[in-house]
Amino acid sequence: MKKTALITALLGAGAITAGMAWAEPVEDTLIINEETELTTWTDAPAAVEGALPEVISGWHFRGTETRAMQADDFDNPGMIFVEQAMDAWDTVEGEAGKSCASCHGDAGDSMKGVRAVYPKWNEDAGEVRTLEMQVNACRTENMEAEPLKYTGTEMTSMLALISSVSRGMPVNVATDGPVAETWEAGKELYYTRTGQLELSCANCHEDNYGRMIRADHLSQGQINGFPVYRLKNTKLNGVHARFKGCVRDTRAETYKPGSPEFVALELYVASRGNGLSVEGPSVRN
Amino acid sequence: MADNVKPRVKAPRKASAGETVTIKTLISHPMESGQRKDADGNTIPRSIINRFTCEFNGETVVDVTMEPAISTNPYFEFEAVIPDAGDMVFTWYDDDGSVYEETKSIALG
Predict the structure, then answer these.
(1) ipTM of model over 0.90
(2) Which of A85, A96, B16, B107 has its CB 3.0 to 4.6 Å from that of A157, i.e. a possible disulfide?
């Protein structure tokens, strides 16, 4: 009787082990163009204290070839979009007869460090703004041009350009002061289970990172690498488009890209990566 | 003419005589196959890069014929032996008659 119970227990344990697919993050160092070393694995920032021992960029959860693609600008397909955005940067649009360059000059100088601190509080507007919102505010208010579609290629390309000049700088979004309320709302969303599958962000990206979800590795869901060039859809993907995909996968009705809910969630998730380098445009599966 | 066509080449600036170097090339191009139809059901005409060549000091390094199944932004990576200093000329031929050219000088050193 005892023996049978033991065998059953052993078999049971074996079955569990076989069923658990581990996909630990790979130890590696990300050096872009053989010169810029990025921080992709570091101590946990205040936002995730007690929840995660350390924060790890999604880069470590990808395969050797995918990681190599991101390490060289020539091989990184996201850089093609950066080049297109450079042309757009100098293109005059709208009633005011201005381009981005009219006010901001060279993006390499003026936009350095910008990606690292967004989303952030805008005093004049009295709201938390994502970088997308700021680009469109610039277009409508200063250029008097049509706003770009929030998750469209022109927008993600422009964000890729702005991100690319901050690569290597640590993400450093504020979580206190005027943004505190929004940050709390974002945290609330992060831990709220949604959809028919009743999954919160934390169920996958906090409790189960390093394991497989079907055929894919679960990362910590860091957004320091956005916009992301995904090999599965061969284009740049924005943060809110990714959020939407994730919420949809819980079989829930999703919030809209650019909605106050996603802005709050972006602020909170960005703060979970404080200390990691800005990586965008990164390359992922 | 296709929009946003831009050739890119990554080649070393210097090589020692007889060294084998790696060349990477990419041209942004939609590579419209001619098999697709638009929303109204009309065939979208074929528009691809149909030939890519690389010459070093007038000598052919590679000469590639491309067909419609090649995907967007064709990328070629190949190795070449550098016998001497000189110019590497890369040429892409578009269906619409456009020719895109890029030159990289390689010095000995």
Answers:
(1) no
(2) A85
